[in-house]
Amino acid sequence: MPIVRFVREARDVRCQYGENLREIALREGMQLYGFKGAIGNCGGCGQCITCFVSVESENLGALSQRTEVEKTKLRNRPDKWRLACQASVKSSLVVLTKPQSPPPNSQQLIEEALSKVLPK
Questions:
Q1: Right CATH number for 3-115 from 3.40.50.720, 3.90.79.10, 3.10.20.30, 3.40.50.970?
Q2: Which residues contact 41 (CB under 8 A, 6 or more apart)?
Q3: Which letter does DSSP use for residue 65 in this model?
Q4: What local confidence, expressed as pLDDT, does residue 45 receive?
Q5: Where are any strands of DSSP class E within 47-107?
Q6: Which residues pair with 97 in a beta bridge?
Q7: Would the pTM count as exceeding 0.85?
Q8: Is 83:52 a contact under the CB 8 Å cutoff?
């Protein structure tokens, strides 16, 4: 079973292969959305582009390929950013939720999360 390590929340969550990243985050009580997204998200259709996550693992293939929706909506965003609603987990990975507003110590948190062994 893959593990998603949520950096900001300092939590590791087991999930099923192919499970949707947005559904995992919401099921586990993660604050996936900023203020705007919390009041006006599209419910997982990829239209509001408010469920950003940043894949911090070196294994960018840990999630499904970018969808056409993501290719369009994220064209001016960093390559490691994904829409959680469009991404399925293929193997263990480390993600930062709400990368558009990272915590002040985000680089330290990311380094710490990456330094711990993550099962494949």
A1: 3.10.20.30
A2: 33, 48, 50, 51
A3: P
A4: 80
A5: 52-55, 81-83, 93-97
A6: 53
A7: yes
A8: yes
